[in-house]
Amino acid sequence: MARVWVSSLETQMVVLSGKTSFTNKVFNFKWAELDALIKGFWLVQLLNIDKVIFETDCASVANCFKHHKEDITILGHCIKEARKMLDFFVLDDVKW
């Protein structure tokens, strides 16, 4: 199970999104955390919140978002694409 915390900076509202799903794919923990983080992006966009802090349990995924490291792996490419979703927000941060 991967979780993502979403904290609104405007309303002090905290939303916890937890998801457990079964798939025929083999995921490692980084992929599961990235998937939960992307679902958090979608949730916040749906709620029309533009100032948020996203928290994840995976330091390596959070660091890739924060430091914009170039990563030539498939996971790195997916993180780069997911980072584009952050353009929707006025103020955002990804922490672990």
Description:
The chain is an alpha+beta fold and 96 residues long. It has one domain (2-95). The protein has three helices and four strands; from the N terminus they run ββαβααβ. It has helices at 29-46, 59-67, 74-83, and strands at 2-8, 14-19, 51-56, 91-95. Strands 2-1-3-4 form a four-stranded mixed β-sheet. The radius of gyration is 13 Å and the shape is globular.
Could you provide a short overview of the structure?
The chain is of the alpha+beta class and 96 residues long. It contains three helices and four strands, in the order E-E-H-E-H-H-E.
SSE inventory with pairings:
Blueprint: E1 2-8, E2 14-19, H1 29-46, E3 51-56, H2 59-67, H3 74-83, E4 91-95
Parallel strand pairs: 3-4
Antiparallel strand pairs: 1-2, 1-3
Features of this protein?
96 residues, alpha+beta, four-stranded mixed sheet, 3 helices, RNase H type-1 domain-containing protein
How can the largest sheet be summarized?
4 strands, mixed
Q: How many DSSP E strands?
A: 4
Q: What is the rounded Rg?
A: 13 Å
SSE arrangement, N to C: EEHEHHE
Separation of termini? Answer: 16 Å
Number of helices: 3
Helix-strand category: alpha+beta
Task: Characterize the overall form.
Answer: globular
